[in-house]
Design brief:
This protein has no helices and 11 strands. It is mainly β and 124 residues long. A hairpin with a 6-residue loop joins strand 4 and strand 5.
């Protein structure tokens, strides 16, 4: 059984910060990619950031580079997305995902395991 449970979303003003967490329970943690995606109604799910648990490799979408940081909290078994200097266009439902053979690591179709999501709303 794979379980991913997100938390930490909310409503903030543009320029503010949020810290999202994903409680992770996987069948195996060997060579797994984990990632954050976001989605708004009428648009495709967008890759935000990805982390390889084994190697530490990182990948960010151009739109969030310098503002968002993906990391592991090993003590709490969580995947974390620290979001700073938030923009209105960052709004959406944020999901964490995991896969062992994602191919393109910021492509939603590459992932087979998903959390239920946590809502982020950024207002001007």
């Amino acid at each position: 059984l794979v379980q991913l449970v997100e938390s930490g979303g909310g409503s903030v003003q543009a320029g503010g910060s949020l810290r999202l967490s994903c409680e992770v329970s996987l069948s195996t943690y060997t060579r797994v990619w984990m990632a954050w995606f976001r989605q708004i109604p009428g648009k495709e799910r967008e890759g935000v950031a990805a982390l390889n648990i084994g190697s530490g490799a990182l990948l960010y979408a151009d739109s969030v580079k310098g503002r968002f940081t993906i990391s592991q909290d090993r003590a709490k078994n969580e995947l974390v997305l620290q979001m700073n200097r938030l923009k209105v266009e960052d709004s959406g439902m944020y999901h964490c995902a995991a896969d062992w053979t994602p191919g393109s690591v910021l492509r939603a179709a590459s992932y087979g395991a998903w959390g239920q999501g946590t809502q982020v709303t950024v207002s001007s």
